[in-house]
Protein backbone atom coordinates (compact mmCIF):
# COMPACT_ATOMS: atom_id res chain seq x y z
CA UNK A 1 0.00 0.00 0.00
CA UNK A 2 2.63 2.51 1.02
CA UNK A 3 4.64 2.21 -2.19
CA UNK A 4 1.56 3.23 -4.20
CA UNK A 5 1.10 6.50 -2.33
CA UNK A 6 2.07 9.51 -4.49
CA UNK A 7 4.25 10.98 -1.74
CA UNK A 8 6.28 7.77 -1.32
CA UNK A 9 9.80 8.62 -2.54
CA UNK A 10 11.89 6.50 -4.90
CA UNK A 11 14.54 6.48 -2.20
CA UNK A 12 14.92 7.87 1.28
CA UNK A 13 17.91 10.09 1.89
CA UNK A 14 18.58 8.53 5.28
CA UNK A 15 17.14 6.34 7.98
CA UNK A 16 15.84 9.49 9.66
CA UNK A 17 13.99 10.45 6.46
CA UNK A 18 12.36 7.02 6.32
CA UNK A 19 11.33 7.24 9.97
CA UNK A 20 9.90 10.73 9.48
CA UNK A 21 7.86 9.49 6.52
CA UNK A 22 6.54 6.50 8.48
CA UNK A 23 5.64 8.65 11.49
CA UNK A 24 3.23 10.53 9.24
CA UNK A 25 2.07 7.63 7.09
CA UNK A 26 1.12 5.04 9.70
CA UNK A 27 -1.21 7.26 11.77
CA UNK A 28 -3.01 8.25 8.54
CA UNK A 29 -3.20 4.62 7.39
CA UNK A 30 -4.51 3.33 10.74
CA UNK A 31 -6.84 6.20 11.71
CA UNK A 32 -8.03 7.94 8.56
CA UNK A 33 -7.79 5.60 5.56
CA UNK A 34 -11.02 3.66 5.05
CA UNK A 35 -10.11 0.25 3.63
CA UNK A 36 -12.39 -1.35 1.06
CA UNK A 37 -11.34 -4.83 2.22
CA UNK A 38 -12.60 -4.14 5.75
CA UNK A 39 -16.03 -2.66 4.98
CA UNK A 40 -14.68 0.89 4.57
CA UNK A 41 -13.56 0.93 8.19
CA UNK A 42 -10.16 1.95 9.52
CA UNK A 43 -7.82 -0.51 11.22
CA UNK A 44 -8.19 1.56 14.39
CA UNK A 45 -11.98 1.05 14.38
CA UNK A 46 -11.50 -2.71 14.24
CA UNK A 47 -8.63 -2.84 16.71
CA UNK A 48 -10.45 -0.83 19.37
CA UNK A 49 -13.83 -2.57 18.81
CA UNK A 50 -15.50 0.55 17.42
CA UNK A 51 -16.59 -1.09 14.16
CA UNK A 52 -19.97 -2.32 15.39
CA UNK A 53 -21.01 1.15 16.52
CA UNK A 54 -19.73 2.77 13.32
CA UNK A 55 -21.58 0.23 11.17
CA UNK A 56 -24.76 0.76 13.19
CA UNK A 57 -24.53 4.55 12.74
CA UNK A 58 -23.87 4.19 9.02
CA UNK A 59 -26.79 1.78 8.66
CA UNK A 60 -29.06 4.32 10.36
CA UNK A 61 -28.01 6.93 7.79
CA UNK A 62 -28.71 4.46 4.98
CA UNK A 63 -32.12 3.58 6.46
CA UNK A 64 -33.01 7.27 6.78
CA UNK A 65 -31.98 7.93 3.18
CA UNK A 66 -34.09 5.01 1.99
CA UNK A 67 -37.09 6.18 4.02
CA UNK A 68 -36.86 9.70 2.53
CA UNK A 69 -36.18 8.66 -1.08
CA UNK A 70 -36.91 4.98 -1.79
CA UNK A 71 -37.06 5.73 -5.52
CA UNK A 72 -33.29 6.26 -5.52
CA UNK A 73 -32.70 2.63 -4.61
CA UNK A 74 -33.54 0.27 -7.45
CA UNK A 75 -33.83 -3.14 -5.82
CA UNK A 76 -34.00 -2.90 -2.05
CA UNK A 77 -32.92 -0.83 0.91
CA UNK A 78 -29.15 -0.35 1.16
CA UNK A 79 -27.19 -2.48 3.61
CA UNK A 80 -23.79 -1.68 5.04
CA UNK A 81 -21.24 -4.44 4.42
CA UNK A 82 -20.78 -6.66 7.48
CA UNK A 83 -17.78 -6.33 9.73
CA UNK A 84 -15.11 -8.74 8.51
CA UNK A 85 -14.23 -11.66 10.74
CA UNK A 86 -10.70 -11.93 9.35
CA UNK A 87 -8.57 -10.02 6.86
CA UNK A 88 -5.61 -11.52 5.07
CA UNK A 89 -2.93 -10.27 2.72
CA UNK A 90 -2.00 -13.89 1.99
CA UNK A 91 -4.68 -16.23 3.30
CA UNK A 92 -3.42 -19.52 4.68
CA UNK A 93 -3.83 -22.58 2.53
CA UNK A 94 -6.68 -24.80 3.58
CA UNK A 95 -5.61 -27.80 5.63
CA UNK A 96 -5.93 -31.08 3.80
CA UNK A 97 -8.88 -33.17 4.88
CA UNK A 98 -8.52 -36.67 6.30
CA UNK A 99 -9.79 -38.06 3.01
CA UNK A 100 -7.10 -36.17 1.09
CA UNK A 101 -4.44 -37.66 3.35
CA UNK A 102 -5.60 -41.23 2.80
CA UNK A 103 -4.24 -42.36 -0.52
**Main sheet specs:** none
Taken from the alpha-carbon principal axes, the silhouette is: flat
Write the element-wise H/E pattern from the N-terminal end onward. Answer: HHHH
Determine Rg (CA atoms, Å): 21 Å
The amount of beta strand, in percent, is under 5%
Mean pLDDT: 90
Please mark out the parts with pLDDT under 50 across 5 or more consecutive residues, or reply none: none
Query: What is the β-strand count?
Result: 0
The helix content is 40-55%
- Number of H- or I-type helical stretches: 4
Distance between the termini: 43 Å
Global structural class: mainly alpha
Q: Would you spell out the secondary-structure blueprint of this structure?
A:
Elements: H1 15-31, H2 43-47, H3 51-68, H4 98-101
Characterize the structure shown:
It is a single chain. Helices cover 43% and strands 0% of the residues. It is an all-alpha fold. It starts with 14 loop residues before the first helix and ends with a helix.
